[in-house]
Amino acid sequence: MISADSSSLLRHRSFLLFLLTRSFSRFSSQVAAVAIGWQIYDLTGSAFDLGLVQFLPTALLVFVAGHAVDRYERKRVLQICQLAQALTALFLAWGAYSGSLTALQIFIATGVLGTATAFESPAVAALLPLIVPQGTLQRATALSSGSAQIATITGPALGGLAYAVAPSVPYGMMVLFWLSGAILSGAIRLAQSAVVRDSATPADLFAGVRFVRNNAAILGTISLDLFAVLLGGATALLPIYARDILQTGPWGLGILRAAPAVGALLMTAVLARHTINRRVGVRMFQAVIVFGAATVVFAVSQWMWLSVAALAILGAADIVSVVIRFSLVQLATPDEMRGRVGAVNFLFINASNQLGQFESGVTAALFGAMPAAVLGGVGTIAIALLWMKLFPTLRDVERLE
User: Fold this and answer.
1) 36, 37, 204, 379: least CB-packed within 10 angstroms?
2) Using one digit for the tens of pLDDT, what is the confidence trace for 139-162?
3) Which pairs with CB-CB distance under 8 Å and at least 24 residues apart come from 195-198?
């Protein structure tokens, strides 16, 4: 048995391959967000909501994707998704290089990337528990989240620099990253075998929804995250804060955007070394409350240093919630259901991100940016306190593993 510390995990070949393939995918996604956004603006002079184009396939295919992940070999599903993404990036690279790329083609390509992501995300989530040794899932989740935060911090800058060289360069990088990810994911060896289903019925597609609805701890975990992100979406207001409240420029906006990811990355380093071993449910609620309180501090701050600190604490609290939520959901779900439950969780996360940005924009338009952010933070705290009463099973979870 491999010892349950982070250094041993990083020497675990399959987990290291998993970490690399997920990082390559996340880097590609972050580069794509910058490159495609700039390309659309260059072609049309307008900023379209590309996030919605990527979210729609998730909403439409979530149940099919979850069922496919539970029915077929998960690393093969992941490989196919990465190959589809690499081919799409190759199409974009050729179009950008030849100057033939149109806005319609970019929207279609974005839809394809969103479709692949709809299958890739539940496959990744369901694959991790089968790779790592028993008793190490919480540390593995922290390390995996940390790699994602590194991509979140560096990916957009990398994409921007590459686009400045030539519009085709970031798409070429995406091809390289996704192809590398597909090769590495094919080399992963599972520590335990997944349950492969031999038959399928229409009812199987919605089994994940039924499972979540009938499991109070999982329902409470997923719905808590949904409402916390929905109400605590202060990051959508960062451009307003940077220009009108903190009186800073684009460099300040960049620092503000990076602060939550930096805080999250530092916290993942702590969680990779020191796991949460008791009162896990209470710790998750406390993390959400800290998230809401940090949002309120950011909302009322008029000093750059305090705003950056509040956003870093917000990111650190969020990663505690993420690690507990992912570990709890995966460990409480039978392996044959992990794909479908993961797909439902992925849909909730994406819906909350999209709706959270919309909610922040509407409340900011009605009441102003500062009252909107304060309301969001206070609402997040209220939801956490209410959920502690509504879901005592979740509150009373003592240990994860």
Assistant:
1) 204
2) 888 888 888 888 877 887 788 888
3) 195/70, 195/334, 195/335, 195/336, 196/71, 196/72, 196/73, 197/70, 197/71, 197/336
